[in-house]
Queue: 3 jobs
Job 1
Amino acid sequence: MKTLLFITDLYYEAKGRNYYEEDLYLTSKLREEFHLLICHPEDIEAFEDHADLIVFRNAGPVANYKDKYEAFRTRIVSKHLKTYNSFNGKADMNGKEYLIELTNAQFPVIPTIDTLDSLEKLSNVDTYIVKPKDGADSIGMEFITKGELSEKVDSASKNTLVQPFINFEYEVSFYFINKEFQYALYAPDKKKRWKLKEYVSTEEDLAFAKRFIDWNNLDWGIQRVDACRNEEGELLLVELEDLNPYLSLSEVSDETRNNFVEAMKKSLRKALQS
């Protein structure tokens, strides 16, 4: 049996979610096929040489341990560590810069800029959202007026993202393993982001989500495409979580959950054999 180093912060408190419950469930299933080591994201270096594959799961926002995360990323290259997800993604595992790239490439994404010189790329609205490029889990996010933008946005450092506030109908997330769609969940009450129900995706919905999965082109791993449905009925990308997406496995049916676990095991085997 191969050994997995399962990275998780079992004590991290996330609004509306119990990270530890999901990872306790996953580890109970993965140990049926693999030997498991479990450690906190700040302790990876002490255990990384004892595992065949490092599985980065519900480790919380990396901004909380940025230096150790960057050191880990460096060791992946220098020591040829094998990781899951693969660390060749272009989205959240590198911060939020990609939202600007996707905006400039005219992907269906909430328009995003990092300098007020590009303000014309955003719709003229009463309220804007600003957030740090290395943020996660709404850390550092603020709602401000247009008049406050110059106070909050440092166009020289370009470390802050600016987006127009969109009065969306609901948020929906599409979950993939490698490039294969697994399930979708949505929040029918937009005031309760993590009160989720299973969502029946249309072909158009899946084409939207798959476009971002294909753009990212990870070798292997789990990704979550978060989107919102605007008042015109269009889906717009909110974020592409390709580092450690929370999976909301407790919100899906037993059949869907079991299928996901089997697909994850298959994907892990592929990563180990690469």
Job 2
Amino acid sequence: MSHQIKFIMVGGFLGAGKTTTLSRLAKYYSGQGLKVGVVTNDQAADLVDTNALRSQGLNVGEVAGACFCCHFDALMETIEELGSNARPDVILAEPVGSCTDLVATVIQPIKRLFNAEFSIQPYTVLMKPSHGRKILKNDKGSGFSPKAAYILKKQLEEADLILVNRIDELSVEDIDELIQLIGEHFPGTPVLKTSALTGEGFDALTAFLEQEGDFGSKILDIDYDIYAEGEAELGWLNSSVRVSSETSFSLDQLLMDVISQLQTSFKAKGVETAHLKTIGLWEGFFGVANLVSNESQPTLSLSSDCTVNEVDLIVNARVACDPEALAEQFKSVLENCAKARNANLEFRQTQSFRPGRPVPTHRYAAPQ
């Protein structure tokens, strides 16, 4: 039997920074001379994360249409496809940011059904500061209902490691408060602090992930009715659009305008952003912009530094509102951004919906 594949799943709420974390981990393991495969996951196709990671030269597969737990067989088939040319040494898996109960429905099934093939590394869950602090403090101004907040808490509860991300955006006092809140709610769970953007704290993370032990064993006591209702409160939009103009325009400025104007629209409607991201792709150039809450600033997380006449935009929005209203706001903003550039829009595909009730392929009520 050949070597076991290290299976590293990185969870966390929408906008916690999972994709940036996986990108940095992929580069770290590749730098160690290891073959790395990445599996992204979403409730629909046209995922910004998949395109962003592939644009960085990574070997990426995507499980679309449902979470890993509900498409477990597709997850394993995708991992097999990633190894069609050469067996990977490491699989990095990024589940949907609104999903939880992943130990019982993903890690435990891998342990029981594919134990000889995989080595389960610590299950890491990223703490999203902007919403996590409010939810753990039971702040009524968190922007989400108690049912949606329930998901974030359950995600952290099943973690082998809680990673406080975005520390480059936080004061020392903010970081200390978050660590104290985590200690009060999840006593005994190890906590590390990092910035996926700058790499601060990553040495401690990679050292933790190298540990051997019985990881992925925290089976949740979870109410699937609350879980399903909390997830269904989020409007989901994935769209791909071609923007073309006879006049050249800045790709990065277009990305920021789309994000900023959508934020303004969401604030005006009084609906909370869970995560909003867009990627622009054209002839080898790409840029990415995102927003992680109504109170945050839009960020150009990957700059293209290019001027174009034509670009393919992919937009993913996760917002606490009706999906039809979300689609209307999105279309209005895109039309406004196009008009400012004398550009034409070609809507390739747009999906807007509420996630359905999770129905796991497998669920083990006790650890192996």
Job 3
Amino acid sequence: MSHAIQERPVTAVPAAGSLSQARLPRWTPAAVAGGSIAAAIGLGLVAGWHSRIQWGMIAALLFVVVTFALTTKVEGSRQAKDRVATSLVWVCFVLAVVPLLSLAWVTVSKGIVVLDGYFLTHSMNGVLDAEAGGGVYHALLGTIEQVLIATVIAAPLGLLTAVYLVEYGGGKLAQAVTFFVDVMTGIPSIVAGLFVLATWNLMLGFGPSGFAGAMALAILMMPVVVRSTEEMLKLVPNELREASLALGIPKWRTILKVVLPTAIGGITTGVMLAVARITGETAPVLLLVFGTKLINPNPFEGAQSSLPLYVYEQYAVGTDAAVSRAWAAALVLIAFVMILNMVARGIARWKAPKTGR
């Protein structure tokens, strides 16, 4: 018995590489960046441009243009657009980081000259501004107390306001609160200082104090806390709220035990952004705290100093010793904000809900 043999059509195997598009090597961006920098420096020297900012702008432009041309030639126009977008992101990142690193380097290099244990533990009492010596202890103490009081005032109020707007608000009152928060966001610091000066000092008759400055700083801090907390609460999935409410848990307890712990990382970041903003303010302190060379540990009575005001006063003197103290105080101010950020991050990570199994 014979069986018919059925022949199957033979499918041609595609040639190797026909299904894959040509790609630039991984080292291409680095090579293009290096070549763009070298070309920009050479062009700047030939043209007589001595500004490094001009060199950097030319290098950034060459990097984007050369990347687009090479990618279009090898990978096609579609991939070229994607690489150009990525290149623009990298260029913007470098343009933002370079001034930051330059500022940090200048501050550290000039501030470390006089920054030591004596500088951190002594005040300017008995030291002339034009003389060498003295310290920043009185200003550091004033900054810590004023920022702490402002945070104690503004953080709970801002947090509760944001909870109301997200979880309960919806009528005309919520719209009015949102409007006033937006208005407060753009208030200059000098206006907040003048408001506290007119009410607390002139109308009620209180004298200069760290507490008066802290109230002005709290006014500046509150809208930042409200806005950042509001956005973080909106990111919490509604499914978490519905699951908690479905179990019969009251809404206030759902907010306290589910919503806030879920958003604690973003809330902490917003609070720290607000703290970083008010820590460097000088105008309210100058109006309400007045500044002093003496150590005043009582923020509710008498003039105090602060790090921004200390930097301003020392730099205004203009002598080498005073300018060195100003740079050292600026370095202390940066370190103070960094330490606060690290502590807040640690607390947020500690209090955040555990997601691992």
